[in-house]
Amino acid sequence: xTKVVVSELRKHEKYERLVAAAKRLPPLPAAVAHPCDETxxxxxxxxxxxxxxxxxxxxxxxxxxDVARSLGISVEEFELVDVxxxxxxxxxxxxxxxxxxxxLLMKGSLHSDELLGAxxxxxxxxxxxxxxxxxxxxxxxxxxxxxxxxxxxxxxAPDLTAKRDIIQNAIDLYVGLGLGTPKVAILSxxxxxxxxxxxxxxxxxxxxxxxxxxxxxxxxxxxxxxDNAISSEAARIKGIKSAVAGRAQILVxxxxxxxxxxxxxxxxxxxxxAAGIVLGARVPIILTSRADNVRTRMASSxxxxxxxxxxxANQPIRT
Length: 319
Description:
This protein has helices spanning about 15-25, 40-50, 60-70, 85-100, 110-120, 160-175, 200-210, 225-230, 230-235, 255-270, 295-315, and strands at about 30-35, 55-60, 80, 105, 135-140, 145-150, 185, 220-225, 250, 275-280, 285. The chain has about 325 residues and is α/β, with parallel strands linked by helices. It has an eleven-stranded mixed β-sheet, sandwiched between helices. The longest helix is centred in the last third of the chain and has 20 residues, at about 295-315. It is globular.
């Protein structure tokens, strides 16, 4: 089991540790759905060059080759599966995973809905008993810990049952990466239960579900406002006595809009990087954005690869 010594964090060192840990493990085959623009094709090949994945390029062959030629790069060493369009690429990439030929799924230059639509098909997809959800693994330069924000990309207005799965998915990822037992803050606008704010009712119920073993592997508290979830001083001023308040590592948003705005605020104001991964399917899904930089793309691949290896070994990978 790979071990990396933890030291004081410097700017983006949190991502560097994830990538370094992943590079010490064998690369895993990844079905890349429709890598038909510069960003998605280069991202897949950079992850391959970093020894994180072995890409299987799935999409219109001529279009992929044209993009490669325009970039002055070669894809000859990689398998290329020719399909006519993006929806066929999504379906074929999922089929490769179902057949055991790929252990990861990576989004290319197609819409997320196309890929996740193929993933969630009842008969031919990659569904499990768990709700599919998204986690941003965020490297915020001004914050000492990696922050997980969920769900900011898949579940628009999750109900209590969906939130339970969203939280469990994030906890399992945190534990699988060898980061220990996470402190989970269930966010709202306030830190007290208020019947006029439904998210505070959900937060209280989720904490009780954790008490009853319906959510496992993490310490939960909520409702918590964002400030007292991550700032010990804010929690102290508010008089909140909690093992989670001021120390949260997983931030659970009340809905997609709040989660998305929180993640993008951190990205564009605090210069954070936001690696994206979709959980709850049979394999980790690398969900990158056209706006992602190289560091973020590497981190997304590294997180997915580390999680897949931890599932293989049935134990956390130390990072």
